[in-house]
Amino acid sequence: MLAYIKKKQYLCAVFWLIMQKNEFTQEEEQMIQQEFEALLDDYAHTPHRQKVELITHAFNFAHKAHYGVRRLSGEPYIMHPLAVARICVREIGLGSTSICSALLHDVVEDTDYTVEDIAGLFGDKIAQIVGGLTKISGGVFGDQASEQAENFRKLLLTISDDIRVVLIKIADRLHNMRTLGAQPKNKQYKIAGETQYIYAPLAHRLGLFPIKTELEDLSFKYEHPETWQEIHDKLEGIKASKMESFEEFALPIRERLNEMGYSFTLKARIKTVYSIWKKMVRQQCSFEDVYDLMAVRIIFTPHEGMTEKDQCWMIYSAITEIYRPHPERIRDWISTPKANGYEALHVTVMGSHGEWIEVQIRTDRMHEIAEHGYAAHWKYKTGESDNSELDKWIQEIKDILAHPDKDAMEFLGTFKLNLFAQEVFVFTPKGEIKTMPAGSTALDFAFLLHSELGEHCIGAKVNHTLVPLSYRLKGGDQVEILTSNSQHPQREWLEMVTTAKAKNGLNQYFRKEERKYTKHGERLVEDAISMDKDLAANHDQALARLLSYYQLTQPSELYLKVGQGLIRLDTIHDIVFPKRGWRSYIPFIGGKKPSEVVPKPEENKEIVKPQKGPHAIVLTDENLGKDYLLSNCCHPIPGDEVLGYLDEAGKMHIHKIDCEEAMVLKSSYGKRIYSATWNTHRVQSFVETIELKGIDRFGVFIRVLQTITTDFHINMRAINISSEDGIFQGTMEIYVYDRLELENLLKAIRKIDNIKEVKRVVVES
Fold first, then answer.
1. Average pLDDT, whole number, for the chain?
2. 345 with 312: CB under 8 angstroms?
3. What burial letters (b/e) apply to 554-574, b meaning 16+ CB within 10 Å?
4. SS3 label, residue 644
5. Active site residue: 110, 332, 514, 691, which one?
6. What is the torsional sign of CA 455, 460, 466, 471?
7. 91 contacts 51 by C-beta, under 8 angstroms
């Protein structure tokens, strides 16, 4: 081993000499050294056993390995591993093994060193983590979508071995997002979309709430830069007044907690730009109408001799003696923690100026778990039987990985179902509590309990009342699953379930059934061919003609359809050897009918190519609908923030940046994503749907029509309005030139008396 290490040190020295030709400046070397010292300082303030020598060795090795290499921003590349290592120790709470792995995480990918080299110098555990990180280099999706999704599955396999691989990868993604400004626009779209699609939900599920929040906010910043900046500026403008309100609100709480003898910290938490924007979109309101911009967090050290739960409720009682609580906005995450391990008691109270303020009550332990997620959760485990919802989720992921989908991208979609759902708590007939994602059905619950229960489920009793399989569970439901041995899964069940476990269980069942039908069908086809002398003598030709006749490409497809009874074999001889009459010898009589002629593929199909430049296109009145197609899924109009997607046929589709389908496209096909800008001149009009709701008073709808037609000179295509119990609601399809015209119209309609809500809605055409 000693000889091996000396050899590697020699190679390292040679590499160092080679790289001298691209040396860093003295200022850069000082910057690198200062960052490393900051890392050691962060590490010194942790409770971990100090292994400074090992970390120094890893830093020196990584520094030499990356020497002379720079990032797109121009800074030395080693600054990236250093930053990732600091995130690991400071923001996730990991120790020396993770710090070394973070420092070395790009060495194998970017240099000639191998995982075996890392094992020889730093041990098997660090090499295993570095190897896991190397497998998924380039992102979850990268250029080869299915290949990278397969790599992500490999990453998740490390959950069963060492979850630190996943935690370091999240730290790596966080630093990449913090420095995303150096990337070109199309790369920003791809990386931001990928982050929003999988990394933020994964951080949420592992309990890394601050990281999840920052990843979402940074993704939003690069996808909607103008909107982000607008909300950010407004937020900065009111922060000072919010902090004044906080001090006034917190003063009596501080006095009361001091009287109770607690050591505590009181913090104000301001909503992020992304969470404000999400609320504005969800409630169709302006920034000024978002009232819960601030929350207050109490973090206290509990007294000995009493449970944390009891003391949280004592503080709750003290606060509600000062401020009046909202009866429907109490969240008890102490009795039943969230699936990601989060524990806290939330209460919303009325402040002295008439505003609702959420107060979050946590112990020191709960706060560390909320900040550092799984790393802290694992630290506080007390024994083998101490399994949280997070442990159960990780076990569920292992079960899914044990029976993966054939299609890697399908697997990724199935996995994502389990990431970002809110939870509801339901009970078994014996009173055992189960955590389910919000929106889960009775059938999901059956699969949660056992796959056989799910496969034979015919219905359920919820709170002693019979309900169908599709019944959506509510918090507090007591559920009894009803089964029958004659019941078997149906394909439409896939549309009924929402959880990854249920979808995976159903797909596994259907694949097993397909294999059974395929095997049976193969036996039937082979028997039919062998029983006919002509067919048996031309076995391969017979099989090829059958595939051609039924327009199939693989024998397995033919076997499956035969096994399922969809194709009969009693006319197999006539299909392979069709009867030929005298007409077939006269071309213009015996030839195929026009409807039977198979068109030849277009040899010189014209492909629409985007304009030249760094993945940028300009949308004009002339090319809309011709060169560039407006997608039906989100109905973009001039003024919307949009991007282009080049499909396999060479057609460019325009999507809104925040369109759900565009989210997947950005994540999966980064190189086909193009930035797009509008340059239209109010020539074309576009159909948009608006939804209205208000109090049904005489003349109110006439005023709406006057605003649309007389004030704005806008034409209408369809109206669908109904009234019930004094409330009217409905939709209107109107023609507008661009987003600005639509927004001005909506503002004008909102000002009409008795109009309570009006918003733009997307109706797929």
1. 80
2. yes
3. ebebbbbbbbeeebebeebbe
4. strand
5. 110
6. negative
7. no
Let me know how many helices (H) and strands (E) the chain has, helices first.
31, 19
CA-to-CA distance for 459 and 483, rounded, in angstroms?
Answer: 7
Q: How far apart are CA 522 and CA 558, in angstroms?
A: 8
| DSSP assignment letter at 346 | E
Q: Write down the architecture of domain 2-225 according to CATH.
A: Orthogonal Bundle (1.10)
Is 109 one of the catalytic residues? yes
| Of 634, 625, 636, 622, residue with least CA distance to 742 | 636
Q: How many CB atoms lie within 10 A of CB 337?
A: 21
- The whole-number pLDDT of residue 654 equals 92
- The CATH code belonging to domain 686-761 is 3.30.70.260
Q: Residue 746: is its pLDDT beyond 90?
A: yes
> What is the reported pTM?
0.60
CB atoms within 10 A of CB 181: 11
Cα dihedral sign for 156, 157, 160, 161?
Answer: negative
- Run of H or E including 648: none
Residue limits of CATH 3.30.460.10 in the chain: 238-376
- What CATH number belongs to 238-376? 3.30.460.10
Task: With CA atoms as reference, report the closest residue to 529 among 543, 516, 515.
Answer: 543
Contact 445, 473 (CB under 8 A): yes
Is 70 exceeded by the pLDDT of residue 331?
A: yes
Element (H, E) at 571: none
Cα torsion angle, 670, 671, 673, 679, sign: positive
Name the residue among 391, 416, 499 with its Cα closest to residue 454. 499
Residue found by looking up tokens 């009009």 in the block: 685
Which tokens hold the place of 755? Answer: 């109009």
**What residue type is assigned to position 242 of the chain?**
K
Question: Do β-strands 652-656 and 673-679 pair in parallel, antiparallel, or remain unpaired?
Answer: unpaired
Question: 130 near 105, Cβ under 8 Å?
Answer: yes
pLDDT band per the 50, 70, 90 thresholds, residue 194: confident
- Quick check: 685 and 733 in contact, CB under 8 A? no
Strand 616-620 vs strand 465-467: parallel, antiparallel, or unpaired?
A: unpaired
Q: Of 697, 643, 633, 693, nearest to 666 (Cα)? A: 643
Q: What percentage of the chain exceeds 70 in pLDDT? A: 81
Cα(746)–Cα(452) distance, integer angstroms: 53
CA distance 174 to 155: 17
Radius of gyration of the chain (CA): 31
Distance CA 706, CA 354 (A): 37
CATH 3.30.70.260 region(s) of the chain? 686-761
Every domain range in the chain assigned CATH 1.10.3210.10 = 2-225
Total residue count of the chain as it appears in this document: 765
Residues in a beta bridge with 295:
269, 358
Helices 26-44, 96-104: axis angle to 10 degrees equals 160
> Which stretches does DSSP call E strand in 621-715?
628-630, 642-646, 652-656, 673-679, 686-695
- Annotated active-site residue in 29, 37, 109, 399: 109
Assign 226 to helix, strand or coil: helix
Residue 728 belongs to what H/E stretch? strand 727-736
User: Residues near 549 by Cβ (< 8 Å), separated by ≥ 6?
Assistant: 575
